[in-house]
Every structure is written in structure tokens, then in C-alpha cells.
Amino acid sequence: MPEHKQPVSRTGKPNPVDIHVGSRVRLRRTLLGLSQEKLGEAVGLTFQQIQKYERGANRIGASRLYHLSRVLDVPVSFFFEDMPPEISGKGGKASAGLAERIQEEFSADPLAKRETLELVRAYYRIKEPTVRKRLFDLAKSLAAASHG
């Protein structure tokens, strides 16, 4: 199946929606502990194609997105959740230079960082619920202490 190359903006940057959807694919893949290669095998793609999807360099077509949702065991809507209002259109009219600002905001998103994903995976590997709860409480209290 051919890759769906997206139209490049005047700035030459990927579409913010494609970046967001790709980041959600990466989030779910990482939380499941799948490599790009394993996900690619499951959907009939190379790991390079998965990389391009996850970066937003290639747009994911509807049928491919549906197949990914089945393999990653999430509804298709998962890929569009937590989309910033500037991207989803709920933030008012787009302004000139918006794409650059959205990319900067996305880069600062802690959910997009590998460290966050690894932390979440490690947290859920803790089998004992009370130990998990204590760790959760400790993290919250440390965060509160560092803010004030």
C-alpha cells in the first residue's frame, strides 16, 4: 500500500494534526511496549514508515488509522484526544505563524517525552496496588513541594 504523503505547508513543516495523531500512535505503541518494527510487522509496514507516521512526516490514511486502532487496541478517536485547541479549531481563528507556535508547544508537552512514557510503563509494571499508590502519592507530594 503506498504511503500517504501530506501536502507540505508553506513553511515546509508537517501538518500539526498529523504530528498530533502520530504522537498518539507513538504514545500507545510505547505504553504497550511495542517497538516500531513490531508495530510495522503487525500492520504490514516497515519501521521507517512507522517512524514517519509518528513524526507526522507522512499522513495516516483512514483505513490505516483504523487498522492501527485495532492493533493498538484503542478506538480511532484515541488518536485525536487531547488535541490542543489551536490545532482542533476550538481556539478561534488561526493566525499567521501558528504552525511554529504549535510545534513549540507540542515539544514542551511532557506526554510527548520518552522519559514520561518510560515512567508510566515502569509504574504499571509494579504489581502491588498499594506500592503503586504510595509511589503515586510520593510523586504528587514531591511535585507540590517543588512548586511552593
Please explain how this structure is put together.
With 148 residues, the chain is mainly α. It has 2 domains: 109 residues, lambda repressor-like DNA-binding domains (434 Repressor (Amino-terminal Domain)), CATH 1.10.260.40; 35 residues. 60% of the residues lie in helices and 3% in strands. The chain has a two-stranded antiparallel ribbon with strand order 1-2. Helix 1 crosses helix 3 and helix 2 packs across helix 3. The termini are far apart.
Distance between the termini: 54 Å
Q: What would the average pLDDT be, to the nearest integer?
A: 81
Largest sheet: 2 strands, antiparallel
CATH topology of the largest domain: 434 Repressor (Amino-terminal Domain)
Uncertain residue ranges = 92-96, 101-105
**What general outline do the C-alpha atoms trace?**
globular
> How many helices does DSSP assign?
8
What is the number of strand segments?
Answer: 2
DSSP strand content: under 5%
Write the CATH homologous superfamily of the largest domain: lambda repressor-like DNA-binding domains
Q: If classified by CATH, what would the architecture of the largest domain be?
A: Orthogonal Bundle
What is the CATH level 1 assignment of the largest domain?
Mainly Alpha
The value of Rg in angstroms is 17 Å
Structural class: mainly alpha
**What is the helix/strand order?**
EHHHEHHHHH
Counting structural domains, the number is 2
- The helicity comes to 55-70%
For the largest sheet, list the strands in their spatial order. Answer: 1-2
